[in-house]
Amino acid sequence: MLTISLCMIVKNEECIIERCLDSVQHLVDEINIIDTGSTDRTKDIVRSYTSRIFDFTWCDDFSKARNFSFQQATKDYIFWLDADDVITTEHQHKLLQLKKSLYPNVDAVSMEYYVTMDADGCVESSEKRFRLVKRARNFQWQGAVHEYLDVSGQLYHSDIAVTHLPRKSDVHRNIRIYERLKKEGHPFSARDTFHYANELKNHQRFLEAINHYNSFLDSTLGSTDNNIQACLNLADCHQQLHDSKQATQAVLQSLLYDRPRPETCCRIGHFFMEQLKNKEAIYWYSQALQQPIEQTMAIHKHAYSTWLPHLQLSLLYNRLRLYENAHQHNEEARKYKPNDQRIVDNRKYLLSQLKK
């Protein structure tokens, strides 16, 4: 059976570090905690789990910190988590089985990352990340912010999931790092430009975000997934600036990079729905449900391929007074969001129409 080193970088995590370590300590053979300057009880809490605590002077570079953490590992494979991550009981069992059965020629294992959860505990957005990597391959992290692990070789995509349970954090940290790098003349890769544009958008600096999204797309160096997401984010920025024409063009631009993704279909459906072009809207929302979910490393926003198109189709069929169709789609939406008040109210209304 393979052995695993857990590697984490932490700072002031006293409120959540136990939750994380409790969920994983029995699955790994070594715990390495890299502290980047905690001033709370983080280190004291961690000492009850491991003596392997290392100090790292924070330098506004996540990759340097993560690469340092990997250097402390001594076991066959390295597993990384953040302090606000947990592994639920179901996925603890899956990871244990993987530990027993993984072929030693596998270089890296991807796992689902449940990024956000709704009020009912259902996954809202997720993405794949390479979580378990062979130490001997010496894979390196790249990028000061929104860092990624550069892996290659024999890759295995598992169905194990890590759940993100975030606490309040410094929302300005990432953009501060990018702007310091920019001021110092640090060259931005296409990926850096994309993520910097995302930070600008999140800080409501929409004109600057638009310029950087366009620069990213003009470079033609982005991945397919990032190109599509840049177009959709670009549409959001234009919409915030009340430029619906440019917003629509940005959504349509995403079709240049791949077949329509569910989010693109829903956005086009919304465009027709607002114009009361019901049949055209029905076509596009139906397409959202028919598109296969791409097995990529990109963010998957579950609403666009599940309850949202069903709810919109219900509303559209109601417009056409096709109440049976409307009810069927509302029931499909209810399977995903049983407590959503819009769906609950819509169900009462449609049942009353069907009784007439």
So what's the overall shape?
A: globular
- CATH class of the largest domain reads Alpha Beta
Oligomer: single chain
Counting helices, strands and paired strands, the structural category is: alpha/beta
Keywords: Glycosyltransferase, Transferase
Domain Glycosyltransferase 2-like: 5-101
Organism: Lysinibacillus xylanilyticus
Enzyme class: transferase
Written overview of the protein:
With 356 residues, the chain is α/β, with parallel strands linked by helices. It folds into three domains: 4-164, Spore Coat Polysaccharide Biosynthesis Protein SpsA, Chain A, CATH 3.90.550; 170-258, Alpha Horseshoe (Serine Threonine Protein Phosphatase 5, Tetratricopeptide repeat); 267-356, Tetratricopeptide repeat domain (Serine Threonine Protein Phosphatase 5, Tetratricopeptide repeat), CATH 1.25.40. Helices cover 47% and strands 17% of the residues. It has helices at residues 17-22, 42-46, 62-71, 89-101, 173-183, 190-202, 206-219, 224-240, 244-253, 262-274, 278-290, 307-319, 323-336, 341-355; strands at 4-10, 30-35, 53-55, 77-80, 85-86, 108-117, 123-134, 140-142, 148-150, 155-164, 300-301. The strands form two sheets. Strands 1, 2, 3, 4, 5, 6, 7, 10 and 11 form a nine-stranded mixed beta sheet that branches. A two-stranded antiparallel ribbon has the order 8-9. Strand 1 (4-10), helix 1 and strand 2 (30-35) form a beta-alpha-beta unit. The relative contact order is 0.08. The model has no long low-confidence stretch (mean pLDDT 96). One of its GO terms (molecular function) is glycosyltransferase activity. InterPro entries: Glyco_trans_2-like, Nucleotide-diphossugar_trans, TPR-like_helical_dom_sf.
